[in-house]
Amino acid sequence: MSLLVKICGLSTAEALDAALGAGADMVGFVFFAPSPRHLAFDTARTLGRRVRARAQKVALTVDADDTLLERIVESLAPDLLQLHGREPPARVAALRQRFGLPVMKAIPIEARDDLAAATVYAAIADRLLFDARPAREATRPGGLGRSFDWHLLDSLDPGVPFMLSGGLDAGNVSEALRITRAAAVDVSSGVERTPGEKDPDKIRAFVRAAREAAAQLERGEIASPA
């Protein structure tokens, strides 16, 4: 399987360089004030230029208005918009058309019924991201280190590519891929020392573990779920 690896919540040149050096396919930048990974526009501009087309730049937003999105696009020049809030289908479609960029819609998962949203958004978005549903008291929708029952995605085919997120790290990404057969994985808190502070060694370990797992699956060395 040709696995895509995304390192999200990057906020320093050191962490970005570690992700790029490890061979990450996508690098994510967060524009959401409550998050410890939130970026100022000047920082986003500097880091965005540092990428130099070595990976796809992903701008993560949560129910952002058009003004904020315009500032994000101007400063980062992203390759993909990640909508991680409660954006309804019509809003997703409008943003995709307005900015002329591919859109990835995050869908929170806790139970099988939550997958119904995948059918709706798959008709509009270019890619889906399945993340753990946050606790009621949470102040942000992602980057919380929570996972969900990966078996819920067993044999799932939403019609567009999907990315697995939520509680992943170098120690469990192989099991997550074995169960879900996801074509892409996304990590943030799983490669951090403290919330918002990325650990370059953990970044490299995650990318290496994900690539090794994908190669083993391709060779049939990891059994599919029963």
Account of the protein in words:
With 226 residues, the protein is of the alpha/beta class. The chain is built from 7 helices and 10 strands. The chain has helices spanning 13-22, 41-51, 66-76, 89-99, 116-122, 173-180, 200-219, and strands spanning 4-7, 26-31, 56-61, 80-83, 103-109, 127-132, 162-164, 184-187, 192-194, 197-198. The protein starts with a strand and ends in a 7-residue tail after the last helix.
Apparent shape: globular
Question: What's the helical proportion of residues?
Answer: 25-40%
State the low-pLDDT regions, or none. none
CATH superfamily: Aldolase class I
Distance between the termini: 19 Å
- Highest CATH level, the class: Alpha Beta
- The CATH architecture can be named as Alpha-Beta Barrel
The helix/strand class is alpha/beta
- Supply Rg: 16 Å
The total tally of domains equals 1
The total count of strands amounts to 10
Largest sheet: number of strands, sense, barrel closure: 8 strands, parallel
Largest sheet, spatial ordering of strands: 7-6-5-4-3-2-1-8
